[in-house]
Amino acid sequence: MDRRLTRRAVMSGAAATAAIGMTGCLQNPDPGGGGGGGGGQKYSAGDSPGDGSVSILGAYGGQEQEAFMASLEGFEADSGITINYTPDKDFANTIQQRAGAGDPPDIALFPQPGGMFDLAAKGLITPIDVYLDYDELASTLIPGFLDSARYEGRVYGAPMRMACKSLIWYPKKAYEKGGYSTEPATMQELTEIADQIKADGITPWSDGWDDGQATGWVGTDWIEELMLRVHGPVVYDDWTKHRIPFNAKEVVEVFDIAGDLLKGEGNVLGGTDSILNTPFSEAPLALFEDPPKAMLVRQGNFVTGFFPEDVQANMDEEVGVYAMPTWEGGFDGQPILGGGDLAALFTLNDDTVKVMEFLTSDAFGGEWAEAGGWLSPHRTFDLSQYSDSITRQVAEIASNAQVFRYDGSDLMPTAVGGGSFWTGMVQWLQGTKTAQEVCDDIEAGWPK
């Protein structure tokens, strides 16, 4: 049995649970203080009538845009408010330019918090406690989601869509025929399952990190997943916000744990060279060969779009999924790593508030859920609206999580989260640098 089955986390699960319980109660502390696009004072209906039209800027187009607009049709008819949505593939730059020039949309849908924080720091976005019922919203969301939108004590965006990354996918028929457990309670139990798969002459894992200039991001997800499980969300937050250095002992420890799995003899199809040369989108294909060349892939809910067409046409029969489990001795609860679109308000009036109330509620998204490719961040969303059982299962996994945390590299400065962290993962997997050396390099290059 390898060392992962006995080592204990630095932070006890009980301590992590207690700490996250406190952070979950952190309502915006001073609704009357601070700036924002609409000022800091509490808003009341009738204070500023709208003109019947609300503009929204977002990053998605095509079929996603169609599904989004279909989800708004009923609201538009009932409210009499016309919503004008503009998609922009260069959203991250466009929103900064428009807001900086004094021409922001009424509402923007941020796919990562960083750009929103930049504008919140300039006083251009209205904190949600000004116009939404913070406690009511928090009560229906997956715990911890609002913390991903918190800047200097106040929350500036509310989630209207989520992505769930902490998922283990498997070929349902072959996996169940092999008699492997579909409910591992811990990562240690998952290691035992992998050992059973190896004993049957099959490679347990398939993994792929190749993504052109973005090669390495899949590796950062492994580190983030294990940071959450081994050390808990409090240490995770300290790490992503650089309250502890990137080369802290907790981080180096997690690199070593990930190395046991990814570099272990016979654990991953083709070994480390194959991981680096396999596009992330092709990693699942090995699971659906006849017979399967591998049994497990760790990837987000979006990966189903890369499954073979015949598998996609019969997902409920061909595909199985369960949550990436907890770490024995680590955080005492099921964490979920993911992402989501955060709706943020620039123009404060009756119409924009009504749109924000709807977009960020569990009543939004039914039509999008039916069309596919969308998950609600609300635990109270009607799961029957999802079009297939595998999506409902993913939604249940997310809804049952004790805590949600945003993808760490999306929270870090771009030079790290989209730069040195990616390249460092490649160097570490290749073996050209140790875990300590990679973490030291990333820390040394963290923007001052």
TrEMBL record:
Keyword Transport among record annotations: yes
Superkingdom: Bacteria
Chain intervals for the UniProt region annotation (Disordered): 27-48
Coiled coil: none
UniProt cross-references to InterPro entries, sorted A to Z: Bact_solute-bd_prot1, SBP
The UniProt record lists the keyword Transport: yes
Signal peptide coordinates: none
Pfam family, one: SBP_bac_1
Keywords of this entry: Transport
PROSITE patterns: PROKAR_LIPOPROTEIN
Biased composition range(s): Gly residues: 31-41
Family: Belongs to the bacterial solute-binding protein 1 family.
Descriptive protein name: Sugar ABC transporter substrate-binding protein
Species this chain originates from: Brachybacterium alimentarium
Biological classification of the source: Bacteria, Bacillati, Actinomycetota, Actinomycetes, Micrococcales
